Each structure stands twice: as structure tokens, then as C-alpha cells.
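General statements about sequence and structure are easier to judge against a single worked case. For one protein, we set the task of working out the C-alpha cells from the amino acid sequence alone. The sequence in question and its C-alpha cells are set out directly beneath this paragraph.
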Amino acid sequence: MLQSCTSVLVLEDNVDDYLLLSIAVKKTALPVILHWVHSPSEALAYLHGEGPFSDRERYPFPCLFLTDLNIRIGTYSGLELIQKIRQTSRYKDLYIAVLSGSLDEHQIILVYEAGGTVFLNKTSAMNELISMMHGLLAQFCHTKATL
């Protein structure tokens, strides 16, 4: 039997987008907990269990990292952050879902080449977002990633 993982790390720099996402996740009725960070440096600190994220009881390692591709805060772009995460061998099995408002084919290819697991088109239509989140969470939060 697969062990479920309830921790999802979300990197989103837009408060409104995060609120929509969190409402959609809540409406899926799946037992997941979102941990929201605002910048690539915060995401890395969370993954490393450093600084304010050192308490793994409170901030468990996520089964899924959900990131906006077009991050406008910090030193890394969304693609650079994915590459940096994939350079760390202990994160090789971490599922990385990338949200973007663009369906540019070249951008999608770059996401997969950088190590993204899945590319999703950002939508503000709540029913679509709920359906998307339900499918994503059901697929990728079924087993616990361990370090």
C-alpha cells in the first residue's frame, strides 16, 4: 500500500494567484497541506530545511513542488530554480509541477529539459483549476518523498 504525502510546497509571488490556488486545493477535498513561499530563495531554504524551515515536523519535505514559471522576485528565474533543484541529488525524485499562463512551446520544452515533471496552463476559471489540482494532487501526492 502506498503511503500518502500531504505536504505541497507552493512558490507563487502573486497573492491573488495563490489564494485562487489554495481555494481550488481546498475544494478538491484531498488531504494536502500547502506551504507557501514567495521567492526562489525561500523555496530552496524550505527544501533544505534551513532557517525558519528547519523544523521538519512543522515544515515536512514536500511530495510536490508547485511553482510559477514567471517568478519576478529573487535571484533565480523559474527555469533556473528547477535546474538548481535538480543539481541536488537528494531532490532527484521530487515532483516539480510548473504553472504558467503561457503555452509557448519553446518554454514548455525548456521546463522539461530543466527537470520539470509536469507543465500546467494557469487558469483563473475556478472549476478548471479545481479539476487540474485534483488530478495533479491525486497523481503526485500518493507516496512520501524521503530524504
Remarks:
- The chain has one domain: 7-140.
